[in-house]
Amino acid sequence: MFVNYVRDSVRSSPINLAAGRGLLGIWVVWKTIWYDWIRLVNVPYYEISSSHYAWAVPESVPWLLTVEKWLLIAMVLLFIAGYRIQVTGFVSALILAHFGVIRSILVSSGEASSLFIGSLLILFFTLYAEQDQLSIDGVRRAYRRPPDELTHQIVSTDSDRYKMSAMQLSMWLIAILFFSTGFSKVVDGNGLGFVAPDNLTRLVLVRSYVYPWFDLQLLIVEYPILGVLGGIGTLVLELGLVVSAVTGVGFSVFVLGLIAFTLSNVALLGIFFVDNLFFLGAFFGFDRVVQRLQRDQQLTVAFEPQNHFTLLTVYLIRLLDAGQALTYQTMSSHLEARAQTDGGQTREELNEQNTAVRVTDGETAYQGYEAFVKLLNQFVFFVPIVWIMQLDMIQDFISRSAALDSSPSTETDRNYRQNP
Amino acid sequence: MLDPQIWFLGVMSGLVDTLRPYAAVVLSMTFVWTFLFGLAAVAFGDRKQWLKDGFIAYIFIGLLACNFVLPLAPHPFVSWGHFSEPTTETVTYEELRLVDERGAELKYDSRATLTFDSASMRPVRERVRKEAADGGENETARALIEQASAYRNSVKGQSTVDKMKFPHHGLTSTWDPKTLDQYGEFVGIRLYEMTFVTTPDGTTVTEYEETVVAETFVKDVSVEPHPPRSMLPRSINRSASSEIDHSSSLEQRYPDKITPGMQSTVGNDMILRAEVRADVR
Q1: Chain B 123-142, residues with CB within 8 Å of chain A CB atoms
Q2: Which ipTM value was assigned to this complex?
Q3: Residues A118-153: pLDDT tens digits?
Q4: Domain limits of chain B?
């Protein structure tokens, strides 16, 4: 369910890296877009100047922070899309850390420290931006590559290898932090003081008066054994995540356990460390879900490498093809093979339609526009796009604009569509 | 023989003490240096692998040092320690309570500090305490009352947009319109120190004591001191009904579980609760 990048940071598709980047970006936007910096800087409760980090607060021009906030949002949105990750990622990380410094002056909880964690994770993605293929940067790089090279990568049957150093470093960071919090419980508690039967019971009992919350927490007071078990569970999960990451034993169980632990803090203490859910969620096996959402049919995709649009589209499909369920061929080798197996028909006869992309599912061959529809339809999450593409209105529009275009390939496409 | 752990901690705290006068410079430089190093690693790391490796090593060595060696974590490094100190039989907490014109008290909602965004209450309380000790204008306390009165109106007019906001870290002691309806205008604020003495097994509070450490009222208002509480109510928000008429909120929540004639006061809330539980079982 969760991917252990510490053991193996190479995946057969680039999906997880893009998903991790996206999740992190969404978290930053959701968390920081609400910050009201003018109010924050003007509160009379604090003497910001007494902080060691007073320089971080532009007290005379507080609106600068609002400008900075919207710059951060813009940068993060571009980071999510994967546009110039080195620039947008670095600027995002820097502003996020700056915000972390200012919020830490006013807020001491994990809510502020998570801004620094986010900043470091974004820096990791930025440092290894060149590994990020499923991004605007990745497509731009692919666009600049010689068609032969890209074609070779598409048709290659060796299983793909996408290294994700950013995910590996992020996982180390999170695992070390969890180990540290478990470690501090052991050191401060002189061993097992934290799991002593009275400790969590008392913590919950007194908090139930000072920070009243739902009655559920009183179960621990009534059955202290639950507190002991909970305490042991907490230590095992916090200390064990890094051990599990290194040894590879029960990794998903540990991550799920820590998610459950984060949620149990909501029920028992009324403390909601939402940020943790995003940090842990980034390690989810998104590529396996994409694989599941792929239709179970064997398609062969033949494409014309000289047509740049087709080449890039097929390249993107190949990146999303986590299960490597499709077979990719260049148009010439495909027609060669078909001419041999079909017999009777020559390459020229097969090539009569002269389209840039041809998708076959064993029996039927789809060409041009319909081939793209068929290709996108392979992925369940493209259903809305496929639906729009299949609307009569859109199809008419496409064939009309194809008619205006005098290039021979689109012309024959149109003929094909009218007389299939 | 000197315990190596104590020796080590001694050296580390000695180091921190030595650097303390330069703390602002050292801490700030750590931040600036980290991002300059990061910028170099991002900009030139593709050509000079050692820069990238060096930066990664720096981040992780720094992280390990802040978490396992140094007693503090300069930004942007992070150290996580949550509820690691074991509890003791006697526990002391502090809290701020607003006072309305009838003398009813309501725990301060930290979200009032920044209107739906909260600042940490500990430094706020420290300031209130310090200002009271100095005997001045109690500027912080006055600002808190003003802020609370303004925030109160925003709670009533909370929009769907407010509900889409990033969830709060702390979910307890938050005001809702129903709670606020039970209060008149806030005219003062009190800082309480609350001491709980618990049994060795931590399951029962045997003694509770609270004292007012500081109080501030808006001008020309006099409010009777709050009668001493023998125990705090345990209802969410500690609503006005439990504050004002001293009836436990249990009756409202388990009306059919309260036997007729049962005397309910804030003080025996715990006994009541146990009986309700027994009945439910």
Answers
A1: 123-124, 127, 139-140
A2: 0.85
A3: 999 999 999 999 999 899 999 899 888 888 888 888
A4: 4-68, 90-240, 247-281
